[in-house]
Amino acid sequence: MGLREYRQKRRFGVTPEPAGAAAPRGRRAKPLGFVVQKHRASALHYDFRLEWKGVLLSWAVPKGPSLDPTVKRLAMQVEDHPLEYAKFEGVIPEGEYGGGTVMVWDRGTWTPELPDVDAALAKGDLKFTLAGKKLAGSWVLVRTRGGRMAAGGRSAWLLIKHRDAAASDADLETTEPRSVLTKRSLAEIARDEGGDVAKAASGDPPDEIRRLIANPELLVRTTRRKRAVWHSKPKQR
Ligand code: MN
To answer: What pTM does this model have?
Structure first.
């Protein structure tokens, strides 16, 4: 655990992603944060991250979270990320690790349903409650049988919604396609940050694409955005 693998995979002079603080700060009284980032890399996926012990525990969820308790979503555990990553929305240069467009798709706080999170992680059965803008209520991450790999390997988990008032059959991919930080679609983030707009748009739902095709001026950046969020340097024009 820790950020060694995260840092080894990235060139911080090239990618705008954060390197992370030198050492995690002490135990914080603040609620624990979570973030879900929609990431149009070589394949579209959602990165599900839970703050724990000064880092973001991270899983790549190819199909994204589902509010339907009968749906189990594969979640591949990946390297821990720095806490600052929760604010990262922008473009990772092509050719770099994870090259593509990143959106802050949901953010909020999480609460473990049992006090011993480390024991739950070791057991491969972590139950928790989310309070985000899109995701809420009770969830579980359960490691699959045979999903525990050698050190450094990836382990396979399932992300499942529990039955409660926040469960629903809504299709989040079409009903909630935009950033909770900036309301932008993937294509709009790529446009603003000098990324590959066509590639990013392939991760947006069809209605968003149709809207852009009907209004091509939406694809032309006319004003420089206020730097409200940590994002990549725009191309010099
Ligand atoms: Mn990713």
So the answer is: 0.85
